[in-house]
Amino acid sequence: MRWAIAPVVAMCVALNAGWIATHLDWLRPLVAGRAAPDFALPRIDGGAPVALRDLRGQVVVVEFWATWCRPCLQALPHLDAATRRWGPRVAVLAVNVDDRERAAALFADAGYAPTLLADDGDTADRYGVHSLPHTVVIDAGGVVRAVTNRPADAIAAVDRLLARP
After folding, report:
1. Number of domains in the chain
2. How far is CA 161 from CA 37, 137, 140, in A?
3. Which of 57, 90, 139, 164 has the most Cβ atoms closer than 10 angstroms to its Cβ?
4. CA proximity to 158, closest of 91, 111, 73, 113
5. What domain range is 72 assigned to?
6. Global pTM value
7. Residue at 136 is within a domain
8. Is 23 domain-assigned?
9. Cα 162 to Cα 160: distance, rounded to the nearest angstrom
């Protein structure tokens, strides 16, 4: 009877090893100095999805937030002001992780400038989102330069990147 179980166990181990080998970016913690995992997320307004790979060549800010998150709601006006100051040099992506309709209404009412996206259920996990807000700053080459839950730190990191020659 034990010998009948061995092939099943071996198959499970092989399948898990295969999954791990093809999903290493999901398992590594997201830290400064590593390549940012690629994603393509839908725009909440129904426009074309936004793919990180298409933003190469410019600094990218990815802000994970939720409509129920008070610190997120307090951070959005600051992120909006920075987005307007940076202009087209920086792509600012506000990734909503909860209620698309409420997020769209909030952005429409406030007139926020960041691009509003919806999480696909995997991207927040791949980016190590355990608390909100969760902000990732990615340089023009696709490398993570800051991971923070303090939007002011993210804004300062972007300002430093833009000040480089």
Report:
1. 1
2. 20, 10, 9
3. 90
4. 91
5. 30-163
6. 0.83
7. yes
8. no
9. 5
SS3 of residue 125 by DSSP:
helix
CATH at 77: 3.40.30.10
Count other Cβ atoms within 10 Å, centred on residue 65. 28
- The pLDDT tens digits for 78-137 are 999 999 999 999 999 999 999 999 999 999 999 999 999 999 989 999 999 999 999 999
- Smallest CA-to-CA distance from 123 within 96, 144, 92 is with 96
Tokens of 128: 């190590």
At 20-72, the pLDDT tens digits run 444 445 445 678 889 999 999 999 998 899 999 999 999 999 999 999 999 99
d(CA 13, CA 18): 9
Asked if residue 76 belongs to a domain, the reply is: yes
Apex 22 CA angle, 14 and 141, nearest 5: 165
Q: Is residue 10 part of a domain?
A: no
